[in-house]
């Protein structure tokens, strides 16, 4: 674990990371100087420079560390609190007095360092402080015009800002991680008080983007990213596992008010909270030509950023564009992956539900399906939205984009690996009145596909070709908040 040394020079904090084991070895580096720069010139040459060695948990004597309570503890001795007029705590037996004439070279060096540091960064915060870091030139999110990029930039900040939760602990990205394909790598996500959600978080990729691979570029110049046109639902897209929302602008604020997820049930309280944060005024001004913070602007910015998260550069995509002549080149799918693709599309007909040639995962297939997870469901999925008994056990068919990163799988995250998923379809489907017809045999019972181990390996190898690492590592989709 890395400890921090605080060196005060004219009231400025300088942090040097030292391992705990190096403390005694490098004590001579951890001297603290108080430079009396506000004294008159005469007093300056008569003043004494005070040095004191300490660390954040306190030091009783030079070279002997104490285990005092942390600075946040209510039991911290008062003598270790900063005293008025001094930039550092005062403790007996740790003062060393030296005539300033013997230390002028040292103090001059410290002064130069202080000035240089203050020019580079006017105010250095405490260790662990979070700050916002945005590029001087906005990232290109839409390939349309810079105003849309400004809206998406604001949306990115909002997406990662934990201030959108009641106790500043949870952001949208807490449950939709870039490294996990904007899904959650936990079975259930944890909310602002540590309580867990009732469903696994769905991935956020290619929302509002339909059509087929190769046609996607014709869609990229309009509805999916321009807020003024409003939400788009190419392919009949519905949102959430139970389809209770179809408008992305309406969806994005629901987790903020959820009593488990983020906990701000009063949107007016959210507006007041964000208005008090110094970085939002200019961001809203750039995005909407007004510093006003409104729920409509928040939802527009968030939805614009989310719509900009596109996966369209997988090895499978390149294979399709080459195969159908959209681009010149050769496919780089190997024999096992090609075999898996044939099994996926033909023998086991997975493509009838998961139309991988569509950016959202389906076009003509139904949006919801009961895949025989249970004979009796604890969570009835779509039925909770429609109140139709025929919809019991039906859940939204997820896109398989970056599927190797978005586990665990299913609405309740019951399957940890793709092998578990393959085993379910091979011999684990339960009979249910609403089981999808494509998963029934000629007697109306759940099919036993009996997929061989080699075939499972081939299909999983094919699913790996749906990975788009560029999206998972693109800095324009990353967290703009950094920690010192």
Write the layout of secondary structure elements.
Layout: E1 2-9, E2 12-19, E3 33-34, H1 41-46, E4 48-51, E5 59-61, E6 64-65, E7 96-99, H2 104-120, E8 130-132, H3 146-160, H4 172-175, H5 216-219, H6 248-251, H7 254-257, H8 267-275, H9 280-288, H10 295-307, H11 315-323, H12 335-347, E9 368-369, H13 383-386, E10 395-396, H14 418-428, H15 453-464, H16 469-473, E11 481-483
Antiparallel strand pairs: 1-2, 3-4, 4-7, 5-6, 8-11, 9-10
Helix pairs in contact: 3-9, 3-10, 12-15
Compact summary:
This protein has 484 residues and is an alpha+beta fold. It is built from 16 helices and eleven strands.
What does this structure look like?
Helix 3 (146-160) packs antiparallel against helix 9 and helix 3 (146-160) packs across helix 10. It is globular and about 65 Å long. It is built from 16 helices and 11 strands. 29% of the residues lie in helices and 8% in strands. With 484 residues, the chain is α+β, with helices and mostly antiparallel strands. It folds into 3 domains: 2-127, no CATH class; 146-310 and 477-483, Cytochrome c-like domain (Cytochrome Bc1 Complex, Chain D, domain 2, Orthogonal Bundle); 315-470, Orthogonal Bundle (Cytochrome Bc1 Complex, Chain D, domain 2), CATH 1.10.760. A hairpin with a 2-residue loop joins strand 1 and strand 2 (12-19). The strands form 5 sheets. A 3-stranded antiparallel β-sheet has the order 3-4-7.
């Amino acid at each position: 674990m890395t400890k921090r040394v605080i060196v005060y020079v004219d009231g400025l904090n300088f942090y040097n990371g030292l391992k705990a084991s190096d403390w005694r070895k490098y004590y001579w580096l951890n001297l603290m100087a108080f430079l009396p720069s506000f004294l008159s010139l005469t007093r300056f040459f008569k003043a004494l420079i005070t040095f004191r060695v300490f660390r954040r948990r306190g030091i009783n004597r030079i070279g002997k560390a104490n285990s005092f309570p942390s600075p946040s503890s209510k039991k911290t001795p008062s003598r270790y609190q900063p005293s008025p007029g001094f930039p550092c705590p005062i403790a007996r037996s740790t003062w060393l007095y030296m005539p300033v004439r013997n230390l002028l070279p040292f103090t001059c060096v410290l002064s130069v360092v202080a000035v240089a540091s203050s020019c580079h960064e006017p105010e250095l915060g405490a260790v662990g402080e979070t700050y916002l870091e945005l590029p001087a030139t906005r990232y290109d999110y839409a390939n349309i015009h810079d105003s849309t990029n400004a809206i998406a930039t604001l949306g990115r900040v909002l997406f990662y800002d934990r201030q959108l939760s009641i106790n500043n602990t949870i952001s949208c990205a807490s449950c939709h991680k870039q490294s996990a394909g904007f899904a959650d790598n936990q079975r259930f996500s944890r909310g602002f008080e540590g309580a867990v959600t009732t469903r696994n978080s769905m991935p956020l990729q290619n929302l509002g983007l339909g059509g087929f691979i190769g046609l996607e570029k014709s869609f990229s110049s309009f509805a999916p990213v321009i807020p003024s046109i409003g939400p788009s639902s190419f392919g009949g897209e519905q949102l959430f596992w139970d389809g209770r929302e179809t408008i992305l602008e309406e969806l994005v604020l629901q987790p903020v008010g959820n009593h488990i997820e983020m906990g701000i049930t009063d949107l007016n309280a959210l507006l007041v909270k964000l208005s008090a944060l110094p970085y939002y005024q200019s961001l809203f001004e750039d995005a909407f030509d007004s510093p006003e913070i409104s729920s409509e602007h928040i939802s527009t910015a968030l939805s614009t950023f989310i719509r900009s998260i596109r996966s369209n550069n997988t090895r499978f995509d390149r294979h399709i564009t080459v195969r159908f002549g959209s681009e010149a080149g050769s496919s780089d799918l190997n024999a096992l992956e090609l075999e898996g693709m044939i099994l996926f599309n033909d023998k086991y007909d997975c493509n009838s539900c998961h139309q991988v040639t569509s950016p959202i995962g389906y076009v003509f297939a139904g949006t919801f399906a009961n895949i025989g997870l249970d004979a009796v469901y604890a969570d009835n999925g779509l039925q909770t939205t429609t109140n139709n008994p025929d919809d019991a056990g039906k859940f939204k068919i997820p896109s398989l984009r970056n599927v190797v990163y978005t586990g665990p799988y299913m609405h309740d995250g019951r399957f940890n690996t793709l092998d578990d998923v393959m085993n379910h379809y091979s011999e684990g489907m339960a009979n249910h009145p609403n089981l999808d017809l494509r998963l029934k045999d000629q007697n109306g019972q759940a099919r036993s596909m009996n997929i061989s181990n080699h075939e499972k390996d081939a299909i999983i190898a094919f699913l790996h070709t749906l990975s788009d690492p560029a999206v998972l590592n693109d800095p324009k989709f990353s967290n703009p908040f950094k920690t010192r």
